[in-house]
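Form 12-C: Joint structure prediction
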Amino acid sequence: MSVRCLDGGESCLVVELGDVIELALNRQVRALGLALEQARMKGVLEAVPTHRSLAIYYDPLTIDRDALKTQILLLYGSLVDQGDQTPRVVEIPTVYGGEYGPDLEFVARHSGLSRDEVVRLHSEPLYHVYLLGFIAGFPYLGDLAERLAVPRLSTPRLKVKAGSVGIGGRQTGIYPIESPGGWRIIGRTPLRLFDPSSEAPTAILPGDKVRFVRIEPHEYERGQSGCL
Amino acid sequence: MDAFEVVRPGLLTTVQDLGRIGYQKYGVPTSGTMDRTALRAANLLLDNEEGLAGLEATAEGPTLRALLDLVVAIVGADMQPLVDGRPVECGTAICIRSGQILELQRARRGLRAYLAIAGGIDVPVMLGSRSTCIPAAFGGVQGRALCQGDRLPIGLAGRQPMALSGRRLPSGWVEPIGEVLTVRVVLGPQGNQFTPEGIRTFLSGAYRLTPQMDRMGARLQGPPIAHRSGADIISDSTPLGAVQVPPDGQPMILLADRQTTGGYTKIAVVVQEDIFRLGQATPGQVIRFRQISVSEACDALRAYEGRFDALRRAWQSLLGERGSYSLSLGARSYQVGVEGGRGTYRVSLKGAERKSEDAEEQ
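Section 2 - Result
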């Protein structure tokens, strides 16, 4: 698929590089975002990378849309795919099930697996961080084992606790702050993943790799008091 | 320095500036004022930088006790402001003495009133902004709406209060919302995921604002908009003012505290000026959408910014910026020099001098 430039109003240009959720494509999106940041173009306010597109917010009275498009296509043309050279691996200690993961039971039943098998399948892979979105610091992680793919809640919970680990479709994610949410909650981490007092406010960044590490409830309590 | 103590917080009063730029890639909403026009005008009235933080009061305003002598300006919804029980005017600079009580009442017209204070509200800057981010509970005053007993610190005021007298937002400078609010939109980013009939419905139907509206977004109700093949997309970025259409075909406009990404099709994005007008609309308001092109939207934005430039120029000349003007009266022409400021102006006219305390007389 070729590059598509879509209108997101008069001050946003959405540059779509493809239409699938796929590692290589996502890497291109991030690379383009990075190249744009480094180019420090006048009038460009911010760029938001998602699975397969980069949204560019700009001041149209400073930079003209056609000029911006031309620049973007030039940047895109000069990208060199260097792969994920040495991605950072972030370990997420997680208590599964019980009050920490109220939907573990449902996921087990739905997938015809035991709870332990669900936990094993969830904590085995090294997940790729596709993007941060939805709420502050929420990482979209993939790919989840096909057998764990379950439908979302038909009515989202009004309050999902901070640190909750959820699954939705072929993805898994972590709610860094308390918020409403429709994903199935199978566990919780004591780690603080969002800190607005820091200029780099999130513990996980797009392009990182994430692994869930099973811990016991008493370790969770220790972790919360900052001993991990 | 604390400017105000909160006596009654009102329904939902938050500290807001022009929002958080550069952190959406971390999933952090932009937040910021829901009516940028009103906050900017209130700041301009006080010679504040336009991006300084003020209070956003919703539907029913707060009651505040002044802890210092202050100059404030109120723009936006008419909350019939009172100082020690006496009515004061919106759209002007208001002097308040230490100990006096400023009360904003229920909104008579519009939804949100903006209170700017000379010097700006000086809560800590977090991720580049002082705006309250309610969804992630940070910014503003402890990441939440004001509570009784909160104190609001201010920064250093620039001009002396006297220099601000005589300023008034021209009546009609902000066009009030009529029976029908026509909102201009640019189609896209997913305009092509709707049937031609769906687009026609969207652009011709009358939609009503439902009570499900807050700082995150506003749900509308009206003729359902038909998708070509479903409402789901691979999640992407959600611009301010995006009109998202979920499976039921009822549009939702995404506003200041919106999620940074979303998985539903977006049929169009509202042009900036009209997003801020939406910030004053109340439930039940009838809304129609009118399509314009990107270049027309840029022209509209240029004209909108031009109105702020005009205000700045008008008020700057009132402030007695030093200057020399030629004045023609009948057949004769004069050189007029103006200098001074802070309420006292020295105007020289062909060598003759006259002083005045009142800038408007000049």
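Section 3 - Comments
The longest strand of chain B covers residues 332-341. Chain B has three domains: 2-164, 180-296, 323-361.
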